[in-house]
Amino acid sequence: MLIPRDIREPMVRAIGYLRKDDPLQAMQAMVIALKAAHLRNSLPLKRALVKPIQDFLHRLEDNPRIRWLLDGCVPDDGEAFPFSLGQETKLMAVLGGLVRILQKQEQTYADERQTYILARQRRETLLQTGQDYLRLGQLALAQAFFIRLVVEFKEEEDLWLEPAELLKSYGCHKELAGFYDALLKIYPKKAQIYTLALEEWLSLGEYERAEDVFKRFLEIFGRHPNTLARMARFYLNWGKLDQAELAAAEALSRDPNLAEALQVLNALQGKI
Question: In angstroms, rounded to a whole number, what is the distance separating the alpha carbons of residues 94 and 27?
Fold first, then answer.
């Protein structure tokens, strides 16, 4: 039997969409064909449609998106879309339901994509604006934009590296030290930043700020003997001999053979 044009054409389109890996459009086209067939209510026509509909359903089942969608819902030896004569209405309902699911997925993906694009634009804007202020010599504003960048996207834990490198390349050591201090509030358990902050404050001769970094490190990571020994060395270089002796003594109480702590105590001999 010759299949009428208003049924044949959407079925051909449905197969074409599957070949283009577009199951959503394919199912929508097949639903159009099924509705047209249902309206004719011809038994010979329905018999003629069984084989092409089954072929379409087998192709649909092989589509990766449909397999993923139905994963775990179909027995290994079963068919995802069993179809036989007289089940056109049921098939329309099944395909219509899958269409709605895929449409929702596509909308969700589109929303997530838009959110990603806007976030990327925001990141680029904050970074570029900070860099522009660096070029203009507006260092406080540059630092503020770089901090804002990290605050807004703190889940990207390496995002701070580029602003830090920019501040360093422009020789903005005070702003870089302040930037590291801000980072410590955002990433209090990232030991690398404590080390970098110490280096910057010490290079600036800001011993009180460096001491504060040391104390915060001890609060977060505990009073490890190596840290205490480095703190003792720091106090020795600062000229705070009593604090140097106390820190070295505490380090040795935890590790009696710690070389750096012993060196600090030896250096203190005759000074205290």
Answer: 10
Distances (CA, A) of 224 to 193, 221, 255: 18, 8, 9
**Integer angstrom CA distances of residue 248 from 9, 197, 206, 209, 213:** 87, 22, 22, 20, 18
Identity (one letter) of the amino acid at 92? M
Query: What is this structure's pTM?
Result: 0.66
- Give me the amino acid identity at 65: R
DSSP 165-208: HHHHHTT-HHHHHHHHHHHHHH-TT-HHHHHHHHHHHHHTT-HH
| Under 8 Å between Cβ of 242 and 250 | no
Q: Is the dihedral of CA 142, 144, 150, 152 positive or negative?
A: negative
Contact 204, 174 (CB under 8 A): yes
Task: Give me the helices (H) in 73-224, please.
Answer: 88-136, 139-152, 161-169, 173-186, 191-203, 207-221
Least-confidence region, from 28-42, 76-90, 171-185, 239-253: 76-90
Report the residue count for the chain. 272
Per-residue pLDDT tens digits for 41-65: 788 888 888 888 888 888 888 888 8
- How far apart CA 260 and CA 257 sit, in angstroms, is 9
8 A C-beta contact, residue 232 and residue 248: yes
pLDDT digits (tens, 9 = 90+) for 3-15: 888 988 999 999 9
Which residue in 27, 7, 130 sits closest to 70, CA to CA?
27
